[in-house]
Write a structure and sequence with these properties.
This protein is mostly helical. The protein has one domain. Helix content is about 60%, strand content about 0%. The chain is elongated and about 55 Å long.
Length: about 120
């Protein structure tokens, strides 16, 4: 997927720890036959395979994590033997490392946008 020139310096390829979280989410989903949505499953596959993501996908990741942070307070969140649906979904999107990384990439995108805008003036 081609990336805008202003983003060429940003690495949109998910790191290994995020790929592992997505893979773990897919494993839990198969084992427990629940958790996540079709979009979450698609995201986990992209993360697991370390596919380069688009800026808009990064923004969707930040949005997902921001909306679902409350799930971390739910029963069985983080329980490896009986994970909650929220925990499975969180992993499908890259888990805690995915949230941290997506926020970092979002900051880089916003900075590139500001710099690009100031150059065009």
């Amino acid at each position: 997927m081609p990336v805008a020139k202003k983003y060429k310096h940003i690495n949109f390829k998910p790191p290994v720890e995020i790929a592992r979280a997505g893979e773990k989410g897919l494993k839990f989903r198969r084992m427990f036959k629940r958790g996540g949505t079709p979009v979450g499953i698609m995201r986990a596959r992209d993360l697991k395979n370390r596919r380069t993501l688009s800026p808009s996908t990064i923004m969707r990741m930040v949005s997902f994590f921001s909306r679902h942070a409350v799930d971390k307070k739910g029963k069985d969140y983080g329980n490896e033997k009986r994970p909650s649906n929220g925990y499975i979904a969180w992993l499908l999107w890259g888990g805690d490392p995915g949230f941290k990384w997506a926020l970092k990439i979002k900051r880089e995108i916003k900075l590139a946008d500001r710099q690009s805008k100031s150059k065009s003036k």
